[in-house]
Every structure is written in C-alpha cells, then in structure tokens.
Amino acid sequence: MCAAIAALVAACDSDVGDNGGAANGAATEISSPGGRAAALDVCGTVATAGGPWWNQGFPDQARRFHVELDATPSAVGLDAVIGLANGAAAGFTALAAIVRFNAAGSIDVRDGDTYHAIFNMPYSAGTTYHIRIDLDVRTRKYSVFVRQGTYTAIARDYAFRTEQAGATVLNDIASKVDGASGSVAICGLAVVADATTADGCVVASAGDGFITQPVRDATVVGTVTFRATPSDPGIDGVMGLSAGPPTAFSDLAAAVRFSPTGVIEARDGDTYRADINQTYSARSFGFRMTGDLVSHTYSVFQGSSDAAELARQYRFRPTQSAATHLDQISVIVDGPTGSVTLCSLLSAASDGVAYSREGTYAVAPLPGDEGVISDGVTTQRLDAGGKTVAQVADGGELAVDALGDVFVASIANTTSTIATLSVRKYDPGLAPLWTASVTLIAGSQIQMVATDAGGAVLVGAAAPADGSVTATRFTAGGAFAGELSAPGNAVGVDGDQALVAWNDSGTLRITRYTLDGAVVWSRGFTGRATITQITADPDHAVLFGGELIDSIDFGGGALPLHSIPEGPVNGFFALLSQAGDHLQSRTVGMSQVNGVATNGENIAVSGLLRTQLRHLMLAQFGPNGRAFTTGLSSFGVNAEELGDGGRIAIGASGRLWWNLRSNFPVLTGFPYLLVTR
After folding, report:
1. Which residues contact 34 (CB under 8 A, 6 or more apart)?
2. How many DSSP H helices and E strands does the chain contain?
3. How much is the pLDDT for 530?
C-alpha cells in the first residue's frame, strides 16, 4: 500500500510515463511499517551465550526499508550476531543481513560470504550502540550505520549472505551469542518502509514511483543543489522540480535525467536535450538547478569542483508554463531496473527579488522601476515586472534620456592602434534614429554612458595601456560635439562634464573637467588607491570607489588599512559634493570593489571578499536600502555565498539591478542579473 512507504514516497501509481508511456512497473504492495515491536517496549537481554536463538517477527518487507535498534553487548569478545531473516532463524545461514559484535572486539558486517567493515569501530562492554540497517530486498543489498552523535557507515551496499542471495522478503529479526560467555540486550526496535538512508539521502528504485522531498518554496528565483548517483549506466532516472508532490511527469516543471542512452539530459519544453555531451556511469554527480518563475525557464549545472552548464535557460514543461511556485524535488526511475540515490540536498528561494536574467548586462534604469538592459548582443526594454516590451538586435553600454530614448555605445578595435567608438540612438520602442562614431586609442574600454539635460549623450572611456581617458559628446541629433582627453585611470560623466580619477606619484587625484579641457576643480588626496568606478548622483555629487593601497583621508578622517591572512580587505567608497567637498567616506569590508552606484539617496557597493574562496558581497548605505536574498545559494550574501559582485545600478525608487557571478560548486562562476522589488 502506498501509504506504508511514508511521506517521502509521493506517488506509486503506474501511469506516470515521461514519454507518453507508463512508468515502468506498477506499484507493488508494501507491508505496513513494523513500528516498535511490542515485546521490546521494555528493554532487556535477548540472547545469552549457550542460549537459544532469539527471534522477533515484523510485517513482510519486500522492497526498501530500514531497521533501527539500540544494542548493548555485556562484554568484549562475545561473538554475537543480530540479523534479519525470512521467518524465525534457527541457524546463521538463515540470516540475510548480519551485524556482529565480533570476538576481536569490533563491530563488523556480513558481505556475501565474509565479515568485514569499511570503518573500524571497537565496542565496549555495557555501552549501547544505536544501529541502523538500510536494506533493499529487491537488490539484496544493505548498508549499516552506527550512531554515536552522528551516523558512521561501517558497511555500504554489502551483499546479502550467500545462502540468502535469492531472498524476496524479510520479516524477522534474530540474535545469537556464539561465544562462550556474555549477552546482548536490544531496545527500541523500529522497522520502517521508506526511501531514506541514515546519511540523509533518499533512494528511488525502478517501480517505486516518485520519491519526493520538500525544498524552499520559490516564487521568483529558486535553486536546488544535490548529488545523484545512478546504480548503472543506461537507466532512466529523472530528478525534477514541481509545485506540490507530483503524480505524473507532466507535474515536473524542470527535470534532469540519467537517460537510457547513457548521457545526462534536461527537459526543454517538450523534449530532452543538453547543451554539452555528458556521459554518466555508476558514480556520484553534483547538480545545481536554478529556476526562474518569472520567465518560466531554468538552468542546470553539473560538476564537483569545477562545473559546466548542461542546460541554459531551458523552458519549463508546457504543462507547467504558468507555474507560480516550486517547492518539491522528486526522483523516479522510469526504466525496468536500476536506482538513483539523491544526497546532500540544499535549496534556496529568493526574497525581495522581482526578476532575474542569466548573463551579464549593462543597465539603464527608467522611471517606474522599468529598465533597459543589454547583454552585448541584444538590448531589451523591460517593464517593472521584467517582461520584455521591446527589443533590438544591438548591444553595448547604455544610457537613456528624459524622453525615454535609448543610447547604445560600443567600441571595436579597427587596427592595432585605432578603435572606433560607435553610438546608436533608438526611440522608446527601440526603433533606430541615428548612428555616430569617432576614433579612439585601441584597447579603450567604455566605463560610463550618460545623457545631459539637453538630450546629448556623453561616453567615458579609459585606455588602460595608455593611462588615459576620453569623454566624447554627441548632440541629441547625433553630431559630434566635443571630446576631452586626459591622463586618468577611471572616468565618469556628469551632465556635460567629465569626472576623472588617477594616481599621480603617490597622490590620488579627482578632477572635474569641462569637455574643452578646463578644470572645474581638482582634489588631491595623499596616498594611492585603485579606482574601479567614478560616477555622479542626480544632485551632481561625485561617488567613487575601489581599493585602498595606502591609508587616505578624504576629509572625514584617515581610512585605515585592514588585512586578513588571505590578503588585504581595503575596499572603500567616497562621496564628494558637486564642488568637490567631502560628504562621506568609509571602508566596506571587501577585498575588491567592482561597482558603485547612487540615486542621490542610497549608495550601493558591490564586490567580493577574498579568503581561500571568493565570497559575494553587497553593501548598501542610506535610508531606503533593499533587503533581499538571491535565491542562488542556501547561504546568504555577505556570509558564505560564493561568487563575485559586479556592476550595479540604482533606480529612483531604490530598486537595484545587480550583476553578480554565483559560484557552483566552489570555483566556477556563472553570471546573473538580479533585480530587486
């Protein structure tokens, strides 16, 4: 009976085939769990040297189940066995699975025709040992764990005793002391038919139906990570995400499988495929599945230390194209044989996130929490919920003007010494208006694009090899209107002026220029710093950030240097007024700052903390910061979530558009854009 398999088995019906057919093997009736044997509710000695065999029956078990008990040997070296049999045992050969307190003073387990253990566990007289035996009668395999605080495996996938290699049912626990003296007491016997293992895994075998576990309920972004082990190559084992426990494959929105052809595939809409060819064998594989409930797409990553993307933004199954949440993961073997063991399950669900995109994006916020994003190939205009309302096959860095017109800028090297800066203007519906271009130094990189009150567009670019920056202005109609070239390491734009930062012989200089080269003001701060980004807020205050090389006083007191064993932690930001006076400055607890942004009310700083690993970091300052969790990791930002924070933008309401790289499992980073509510 399905109800007997316990809560982890969500469905046993046979009509759940994933490709139009039935799942292999109708549900087999499974006996009710034995529970605690009534005769053993009061603990006591069950077997004594020279005494008869002790037996206790329980309901028939013909599939996967486990037995738990507390066993206490009276002495060391007593040679006592506890085993499972079909019917009352009167001899050792009747026992299929056997745990032994052996004569040498340790606990071992029968494996076919011999006793051994994968972990040496001595036992002591009068000490109680909690033993769990996980068995599958169909495969005639079992594992044994001893709990002393946590479970320790002393046997994994051992074979039933040779004489019981054909056993089809077990319904008895027996014990016998074979030594000259001593006894064994047993308490707390429980027999449970379920899919769990002592080490926190679940196992789905052919014919079991869906084996289901709850995960964090995701309504925008959700991620599950797990390890899955197929018993053999060529099985048909599916692992999928659903809203509620599934009863059919059509309930799975996202699925990855060990396919009968020997490769790992993922479901893309109405078919299985993969972006890379990954074969499998009978070993453990690490997976990460990240679903997006806004776009109804998901991605699958596979690896153990480094990882590869097996499936990128695959569509939910058509029957789940309107799913609003995912809160279950299930595993099922749809073929006639084999099993899949799912372990190390972790899950995460975003909170405070409006939508996400996989990839790295330039962003230009619009009023009403709308925005324009570009991945370098395509530019999209999005409504506040993340729905695409217009797009064009063009990509680059972005800016928007007060009318909603969109500017796309990019640089391409044309020779070894010359590059071309191209700017394209589009109307709010992304219909093209004009294209303009100028030449720059080869290797120049765009650092900022912005518009001024008159609708002109300014592009700031840096040439790292040359140690110079440029700020180029085009009118609202596309005419070239001027260009500043100056020494610098970072450049931003503010209206029709350029903001430049550079290190000058031990002094960090911040200068505001007009485009004709006139200095509006310049500030020199004793000390060196690497400036990642410089920008301006709507009130023309100047924000810049990066990493301190020396302690620097920006006007509010010297910012101290800090380090940990793995290296310096000197990320910082500073805010100067429109006239160049100090407003605030502080360190931010980051090894590297990769982006700063401000809307005049809040400041956001994005980067990483570098220990032995790279930790994703985001700091917000101001009255309207957005608290959120990414939904990409079971850990939290600024705690143990691995990755790098990248560029960031803030809208007028305080909404964040945050580029980041999320690492899986440890070393490989995958890019995302997260947009807060």
Report:
1. 58, 59, 61, 189, 190, 191, 192
2. 0, 57
3. 98
Cα 203 to Cα 510: distance, rounded to the nearest angstrom: 62
Sign of CA dihedral 385, 386, 388, 392: positive
Query: What pLDDT score does 532 carry?
Result: 97
Per-residue HEC secondary structure of 59-121 comes to EEECCEEEEEEEEEECCCCCCEEEEEECCCCCCHHHEEEEEEECCCCEEEEEECCEEECCCCC
**Residue the block writes with tokens 């745990």:** 99
CB-CB contact of 460 with 440 (8 Å):
no
As a whole number of angstroms, the distance between CA 591 and CA 484 comes to 32
Helix, strand, coil % (nearest 5) of the chain? 5, 55, 40
Structural domain boundaries of the chain? 35-192, 200-349
pTM for the full predicted model = 0.88
For residue 523, give the nearest of 534, 532, 515 by alpha carbon: 534
CA 135 and chain centroid, separation: 32
- Residue pair 405/391 in contact (Cβ under 8 Å)? The answer is no
> CA-to-CA distance for 30 and 195, rounded, in angstroms?
12
Q: Which residue has the tokens 């990128």?
A: 312
Q: Which pLDDT score, from 0 to 100, does residue 634 have?
A: 67
Q: Which two tokens stand for residue 352?
A: 């405070």
Q: If we measure between CA atoms, which residue out of 103, 102, 94, 46 comes closest to residue 69?
A: 46
Dist CA 82 CA 113 (whole Å): 16
Summarised one tens digit per residue, pLDDT across range 4-14 is 323 223 333 33
Please name the residue that has the structure tokens 């790295």.
360
> Counting beta carbons within 10 angstroms of the beta carbon of residue 218, is it exposed (0 to 12), middle (13 to 18) or buried (19 or more)?
buried
Whole-number average pLDDT of the chain: 92
Q: pLDDT confidence of 664, banded at 50, 70, 90? A: very high
In this prediction, residue 41 carries a pLDDT of: 52
What b-and-e string marks burial along 295-305, b requiring 16 or more CB atoms within 10 Å of the CB? bbbbbbbbbee
Q: What is the pLDDT of residues 380-413, one digit of tens each?
A: 999 999 999 999 999 999 999 999 999 999 999 9
Write the CA distances from 434 to 376, 474, 475, 616, integer angstroms. 19, 11, 11, 40
pLDDT at 633: 83
Same fold, 35-192 and 200-349: yes
How would CATH label the architecture of 35-192? Sandwich (2.60)
200-349 in CATH: which number?
2.60.120.200
Angle at 588 between CA 585 and CA 592, to 5 degrees: 115
In angstroms, the CA 633 to CA 669 distance is: 12
How does pLDDT run across 181-193, given as a tens digit for each residue?
A: 999 999 999 999 9
Instruction: Please enumerate in sequence order all residues whose Cβ is within 8 A of that of 166, keeping only pairs 6 or more positions apart, or say none.
Output: 140
Does the CA dihedral 161-164-165-168 come out positive or negative? negative
Residues 6+ apart with CB under 8 A from 38: none
Q: With bands split at pLDDT 50, 70 and 90, how would you rate the model's confidence at 15?
A: very low
State both tokens at 646: 């990248």
Task: Report d(CA 324, CA 201) in Å as an integer.
Answer: 28
Question: Measured between alpha carbons, how far is 652 from 600 in angstroms, rounded to an integer?
Answer: 8
C-alpha span between 642 and 669 (Å, rounded): 8
Q: Which residues pair with 676 in a beta bridge?
A: 353
